[in-house]
Amino acid sequence: MSATDCLFCSFVSGEIEPEIAGETRHSLAFRDTDPQAPTHVLVVPRRHVANAADLAAASVDELADLVLLARTIAEREELGGDYRLVFNTGAGAGQSVFHAHLHLLGGRPMQWPPG
């Protein structure tokens, strides 16, 4: 998948307007359209990178920015430090949009293993 046909790149560019939950210079966060918890936000890098491993290899700072923005949103959502951060890397792990993204899930008890 290239940046030209990537749903999340369309969100970053403003071509499609998601429900924005927060943003930084490097990251954009928006509400998931099929939430799996009361708080379900996706945090993506502004540049197109296929997955979390590729983002880590390209820029540790941008990877850290995703996590820090997720923390800010969790605080704003008053999750009290009880939330889950998930990266799915590859189709076999459940990644369906091949633009790196971090799931922030909270607002309900989480089970382990997740499934």
UniProtKB/TrEMBL annotation:
Molecular function via GO: catalytic activity
InterPro entries: Histidine_triad_HIT, HIT-like, HIT-like_sf
Motif (Histidine triad motif) on chain: 99-103
Chain ranges of the HIT domain: 7-115
Annotated PROSITE patterns: HIT_2
Catalytic residue list: H101 (tele-amp-histidine intermediate)
UniProt name for this protein: Histidine triad (HIT) protein
